[in-house]
Sequence to fold (126 residues):
Amino acid sequence: MTVTQQRVRLLWFPLACCLLSVACHREDRTTTGGGNSERGRQLVAQYACTACHDIPGVRGPKGMVGPPLSGMGGRSMIAGKIPNTPQNLERWIENPQALDPNNAMPNLNVTPKDAQDIAAFLYTLR
Ligand code: HEC
Fold:
């Protein structure tokens, strides 16, 4: 094998790794709805969701008005009746009454972008 051939072979490794990481990242995006989970964690503190929810990884009062949000990433339902898809979770965070008019969580005027990031964070909770 010539030196050039060897170099060409070696080039495949970084290329393959690069493609793999892109593929894995895509996978991530579909399961989280594409939001930025680290920003979402900060927003959860900013919007004071912890006033009513115990949320792992977020400091706060660990309120008991709403259910704990641990395991949100693995649950099949939101509030026991709405399928837990990224789109539904984002809508829930933006305006809970739009999905379930009779529920007790107030509309906190979360913007769509913020809701997307918060949903991505909640999906990291297993
Ligand atoms: C004033 C209290 C209050 C605040 C503040 C609040 N929630 Fe809620 N939340 C509730 C209540 C009550 C429920 C239960 C609704 C139901 O099951 O009908 C709920 C339910 C939820 C659920 C569904 C949980 C489940 O078990 O399926 C999610 C997700 C959620 N809240 C996210 C948030 C996020 C994110 C924030 C901050 C942006 C937030 N909540 C702020 C009271 C609150």
